[in-house]
């Protein structure tokens, strides 16, 4: 698996380096490269005047355990900030939320030790695993974000989740597998999460006082 840095900037520009660690939702599964989450977010941020290069550290099928196993490798790229969007595959496999919490805690501890601010993006749990699982899974994102002073996005899928709770069709936002967003879904996700990513960049030093 390789990391892909997107968005060329002038050689003399001091672009912030943002790593997007996640699974297929981050990696851009089922979409042309330019329509995946990372390049669309890259374009959105650059369109708003941010000098930033995003590394696509999304690996399809990855779990929180996989993320914990490769966090040191990701941090070796010296990112200035990091998005952590893991847990979807833990949900699909019904992994004990206590295990997922421990893995995410490891990731956030390592990022904190490296001085890398984090945006932690979660997902709501379905009810089919029972109320205790749902409570514990969703609470881990809230608790860990507070514990590690990370920016919290409770639902990475944002607008898609909102439509689902309203009982509306998701056919305009999802691929045929009904798991991964299509190009329009990605655009709406980026528009929703973008302001919080801007907050993350501000924590990393993207502001008027930055050299």
TrEMBL record:
- What InterPro entries does UniProt report for this protein, alphabetically? Ester_Hydrolysis_Enzymes, SGNH_hydro, SGNH_hydro_sf
Domain SGNH hydrolase-type esterase positions: 20-187
Which SUPFAM superfamilies does its entry note? SGNH hydrolase
Under the GO molecular function aspect, what terms does this record hold? phosphatidylcholine lysophospholipase activity
Q: Which Pfam families match?
A: Lipase_GDSL_2
Which superkingdom heads the taxonomic lineage of this protein's source? Bacteria
Q: Which PANTHER family match?
A: THIOESTERASE 1/PROTEASE 1/LYSOPHOSPHOLIPASE L1, THIOESTERASE 1_PROTEASE 1_LYSOPHOSPHOLIPASE L1
Name used for this protein in its record:
Arylesterase
> Which species does the entry assign this protein to?
Paracoccus gahaiensis
Q: What is the lineage of its organism?
A: Bacteria, Pseudomonadati, Pseudomonadota, Alphaproteobacteria, Rhodobacterales
